[in-house]
Amino acid sequence: EIKCEDENFFCLDFTSTGDRFAAAGKARVVRVYDETSKKAICTMHGGDSTDKPGHSNRIFSLKWHPTIENCIVTGGWDNTIQVWDIRSGSSVRSIFGPHICGDSMDISVDGKEMLTGSWRQEKQLQTFDFGTGKLKHTINWRGQNTTVGTDPCQLYAAQFSKTDSNLIAAGGSGTNEAKVFERTPEGSAEQFTAIGTIRGLSRACCSVDFSHDDSKVAFCGGDGGVRVMKITDN
């Protein structure tokens, strides 16, 4: 058991090998631990309007980069994504824009693309190029035939599929719904198309996750229910 008296943890992730894990939360600090000893390896600070990059508000999502063993990516309330290097013990890059309020940030299997789900009424679901930090896609939640005045969905959860990152699951509040999107071929009018939707939830969808083989995706939230959607090939 690990306790930090000055911290409320909101997110945690392991390395792909399981030898280390990192956690972050209210204190805006990223703490890295050795799994065997449970001892802290390093503690990374930043932000607070200084010349050192980092978060100036709560951290709600943390992912260990799948191919760069010393890299951790975090997102939170301060409308930034921070890229941390354990070797330097600090954030080395900031991406501005996403407003992360839950487990709504992910990195593709090949490590080249980042996914963000923002708790806001427009431009909620986006992908970024990891190498450059530039915006790649803003995914239209309603599709091209959006009806003017349609209530928005503000996202608490967003994840890539585990095998090839060609699927995205996301959900949130407002309309209290969840969706699965599929990546379309290059040159298509939309980069991702919705292939499944769960509507009519009494409360927000707060968490989503794919099975290890991407054959199923699970959603849960404030209504206390867990829903599993089976994904089939057309």
Structure in words:
With 234 residues, this protein is mostly beta strands. It is built from no helices and 19 strands. It has a 4-stranded antiparallel sheet with strand order 1-2-3-4, with no helix packed on it. A 4-stranded antiparallel sheet has the order 5-6-7-8, with no helix packed on it. The radius of gyration is 17 Å and the shape is globular. The model has no long low-confidence stretch (mean pLDDT 91).
Could you write a compact summary of the structure shown?
The protein is mostly beta strands and 234 residues long.
Stretches where pLDDT is under 50 for at least 5 consecutive residues are none
Major sheet attributes: 4 strands, antiparallel
Strand content: over 45%
Compute the CA-based radius of gyration.
Answer: 17 Å
Residue-averaged pLDDT: 91
General form:
globular
Number of helices: 0
Structural class from helices and strands? mainly beta
Straight-line distance between termini:
46 Å
